[in-house]
Write a structure and sequence with these properties.
The protein has 431 residues and is α+β, with helices and mostly antiparallel strands. It contains 14 helices and 12 strands. The radius of gyration is 35 Å and the shape is elongated.
């Protein structure tokens, strides 16, 4: 096999795609969703046409009418389920079971429709997965995830990707994904090991900070307690304490006191403690009368700052959570994509993928921030960035002689399978 490399190039531009995206959005809203079928074709055509291999782009041939018919059927089924679930939970449950039984068919139809309506250099793709294989992959295997409390997840992911890749063809040439189950387990084990190590370090750091704070607090209390002992010797020669709440009795001194002197000392201590308790009770009652704000009771003079602080802490926590989710998603997506593509070949052509977690994490975070900041108007820019990144980090290696691929004609298939899959949010993308 030749070692020559052919990069995948994406030439789409955010400003150019924004015009397509905004028109698609507005017309879909005005037509109550009817135009969304045409919007989908325009969107996919743009991304396909701007994804080039050796200077030639892909093409998308689906008919908007076929997609619209499929979506109408999907909407009717969805409304039927909602109505039946409201009036007859049993009928709704039966319809849900029927949907789960039909899920493998939906997946196969969706993949077949999308493959047969995609082409490169005039040669169509194809998908030949069967219902039985899809049922095993999308119904039986996922059950093992729950039965094993998640331990079977890498195994299921390997089966999903293998099903998706091994049954796709370019003309008569079949894709083949050779990544093993153990390779998927290594990806997830490294993730769990990293999360465990980070959690352990954070726990130790927090424990150390809390312990240090408690030690400092005790030391400070003891020093203040000892420094406030004000004692004078009376005629009897024993100690009178003027701040009993914060005074330490010197053991050596007390040992020298007679029983009568110790009794008098302890009586003075009890009297002083009772006086202090009365003063604290009176002060608390006065504060309750003067202040009706519960925050002031807890935080005192800092109560006015606690409202904004709570919001800042909440936002910081939300941001931290988002960062963690994006980083984990970036790790899994980059590692699985690299694993799958680097172990896939198409006859004499293989692939090299080198996505990096930090790059994807930055894309996820910055895209999300800009989309939120612009109330969604930056969505085209975010989509273009993601498409360009994926293309720039995928290379074909080997003999890219397209004349060696032989095509075959396939009858067009209806769009219902793919559109029902979209309606019920079945993700058909892997790797």
């Amino acid at each position: 096999m030749s070692n020559s490399q052919t990069p995948v190039v994406f030439t789409g531009k955010a400003g150019e795609y924004f015009g397509i995206w905004i028109v698609n959005l507005l017309l879909s809203i005005v037509t109550l969703g009817i135009y969304s079928a045409w919007a989908k074709v325009r969107r996919k055509k743009y991304f396909y046409n701007n994804t080039l291999i050796d200077g030639v782009g892909f093409d998308y041939h689906a008919s908007p009418i076929a997609i619209l018919k499929g979506r109408i059927i999907a909407v009717v089924l969805f409304v039927l389920y909602q109505v039946l679930a409201q009036f007859s939970p049993i009928a709704g449950a039966i319809l849900l079971i029927l949907f789960l039984a039909a899920l493998p068919w939906i997946v196969v139809r969706g993949m077949t429709f999308n493959a047969r309506n995609s082409s490169h250099r005039g040669l169509r793709f194809d998908f030949d997965g069967t219902y039985g294989q899809a049922a095993l992959t999308f119904v039986v295997y996922p059950i093992s995830i729950f039965l094993t409390l998640g331990l079977a997840l890498p195994f299921v992911m390997q089966r999903l990707n293998k099903f998706a890749f091994d049954h796709h063809k370019f003309g008569l040439s079949r894709f083949q994904m050779n990544a093993l189950v153990k390779d998927f387990y290594m990806v997830y084990l490294k993730l769990l090991g990293t999360l465990f190590a980070i959690g352990l370090v954070l726990s130790l750091a927090i424990s150390s900070m809390v312990g240090s704070h408690k030690a400092d607090k005790v030391t400070s209390h003891q020093q203040g307690y000892a420094n406030t002992v004000i004692a004078t010797a009376d005629a009897g020669g024993f100690m009178k304490v003027t701040n009993a709440d914060q005074a330490y009795a010197e053991e050596d001194y007390l040992k020298d006191l007679s029983p009568e002197e110790r009794a008098e000392f302890e009586a003075q201590m009890r009297e002083y403690e009772a006086q202090m308790q009365q003063e604290d009770t009176a002060a608390t009652a006065s504060e309750d009368i003067q202040s009706t704000n519960p925050m002031e009771k807890v935080f005192g003079p800092y109560a006015s700052m606690m409202g904004p602080m709570i919001y800042l802490v909440f936002l910081a926590g939300l941001l931290f959570y988002a960062v963690i989710i994006f980083v984990i998603s970036a790790y899994v997506k980059s590692r699985i994509s690299n694993l799958v593509w680097n172990n896939t070949n198409l006859e004499h052509v293989s692939f090299i993928s080198n996505q990096r977690m930090r790059d994807l994490a930055w894309l996820y975070l910055s895209n999300a921030f800009l989309v939120i900041l612009t109330f969604g108007l930056a969505t085209p820019w975010a989509q273009i960035r993601m498409a360009r990144y994926r293309a720039e980090h995928l290379v074909l290696t080997g003999e890219a002689d397209w004349d060696k691929f032989v095509g075959e004609k396939k009858e067009s298939t209806r769009a219902m399978g793919e559109e029902i899959a979209e309606m019920f949010d079945v993700d058909l993308s892997f790797g």
